[in-house]
Structure formats: structure tokens, C-alpha cells
Amino acid sequence: MPMPPRSSQEILTYLRDYVQRYQPMEGVEYPTSGLEIATFIRMLFHIIKDLEETHVDDMELSGPRVNLLFRLLWEEERGNFQGLTPSELSHNQHVTRNTISALLNGLEEQGLIVRELDKDDRRLFRIRLTDKARLTLQRIIPERVTFIRELVAGLTVEEQKQLVALMAKLFDSIYQRRCLQRETAPDDSSESSLLKEEEPR
Q: What is the pTM of this model?
């Protein structure tokens, strides 16, 4: 739905008017807080994503490339030393396989990742970090932490803690709902093209 000029109060006014105009039953007042929370989460996600993509941690690294390296590092720290497939990365980063391919090509040219055939399935490639990438991340992670800290500086430390607690509670609730949905959803053997892995060429 179209949105008004971006100010929090204008957005709230618009959403409340929207619910009032399109409520299912006349004369019944529907709460708007759910729509307000979801809208602000979506908008903040896109704003933060835009800021991250324009924030350059390194002269040679764009925001999307850094995010891919962070993801691979996180996998290593969880004990996954085999790496991820391009399809897994495209799914995790919510981008197309063409976009992932372009990002991986750039990172490979910079010597920050390696591609290796999967040991169990020779049709798949696995993407792993190089030592150069790990050293690069050790240098830029403090810069990224400072950048993120500045984004939430409009809240006091106590407000940030309260927000984290509430967001964690909301996450658990919504995540549980999604898990239950998947358990009761009809089995669909057809995979999304985004998740299918092609044979290496």
C-alpha cells in the first residue's frame, strides 16, 4: 500500500486511518498495534539494509560482500567448516542466485573465498572463507559494530535493552508460529528454483 512522507507520526496516522477505512465490520474498533509493529519492522529492515550497503567497511568491499563473509564466518563459528552452497547463501541473504554468483565471483577474485566440490555430492559447490578473509573480518568487525551502535544511538541503553527483550519475545512467538505452519502444511516435493543446486559446469 502507498505510504505517506516518512515520519513516524505520519506513518502511524496513515495506518490507523487505513484500518478504520478498511475494517471488516463497521462500528467495531480494531487494534492497529500489530500492523504498526509489522510496518515499522519492514521499513527499518529496508532502511538498515540500504545503510549497510552504502557503508563501506573496506575500500575493496561493498556492504553485500561483507554480509556474505559475515555469514560464512558465523557458519564456521557454529562448527560448519565445509561451507555453504551458493543456493544456501542466496536463500539466507534473500537475493537471487544471479546476484549471489556476481558477489561470489568478486570475492573469489579478491582471494577471500574458495569454491570446492562437496565431498558427498559432487554436483554441489561449497563456499568457504580463506585466511585472508578471516584477517579482513578481524579488522573490519569492530568498525561494523561501531556503525551498528550509531544506528541505535537514538535510544538510551536501557531502552535498547527493553527493545531487545521485546523483539526477542516477538521473534520466538512468530518463529514458533511459522514452525507450526510448516508442520501442518501439505507436503510439496517440488523445490523452489532458488533452492535447487545445478551441476557444476
A: 0.65
